[in-house]
Amino acid sequence: xxxxxxxxxxxxxxxxxxxxxxxxxxxxxxxxxxxxxxxxxxxxxxxxxxxxxxxxxxxxxxxxxxxxxxxxxxxxxxxxxxxxxxxxxxxxxxxxxxxxxxxxxxxxxxxxxxxxxxxxxxxxxxxxxxxxxxxxxxxxxxxxxxxxx
Length: 149
Hints:
It is a single chain. This protein is an all-alpha fold and 149 residues long. The chain has 2 domains: 1-86, Multidrug-efflux Transporter Regulator, Chain: A, Domain 2 (Orthogonal Bundle), CATH 1.10.1660.10; 100-109 and 123-149, no CATH class. It is 64% helix and 3% strand. The chain contains 6 helices and 2 strands; from the N terminus they run H-H-E-E-H-H-H-H. Strands 1-2 form a two-stranded antiparallel sheet. The longest helix is centred in the middle third of the chain and has 34 residues, at 77-110. It is elongated.
C-alpha cells in the first residue's frame, strides 16, 4: 500500500507518517518502481501500536525505547506491566502537581482585593505560597523591586 492508503489504515495523516519516519519511530518504507513508498500490514500493526501507546500517554521518546525490544521479541508481560506502572506513577505525580496549582489559583482568587472592573497592576498581584514555587517566584520579584528602589 502507498503512503495515503497506509495513513488511512492507521487513521493518521501522510505528514504524520513522514514525521514518524524522520524521527525513526517507523522505518523508512521500501520504494516501488514508481518511487512511491510501499507499506506492509506489519507496518500498519507497528504504527497502530505507536498510536495506541501515545493514547495511553507515552511520549515518542518513551515508545522509541520500547520498539527495538518489541521488534526482537524481547518485551514480555512483565516489561509491559513495568512500563504501565511507571506511567501511572508519573500521572499520579502530575495530578498532585495540578492539585497544588489549583489550590494556588483558588487562594489567589480568594485573595483578590481590588474592585471588579478595576485595572490591576503588578503591584496589586499576589500569589499564595502552597509549596509549588509559584509564590516564591513572585516574592523574589517583589524583593528585587524593593531592593532596587
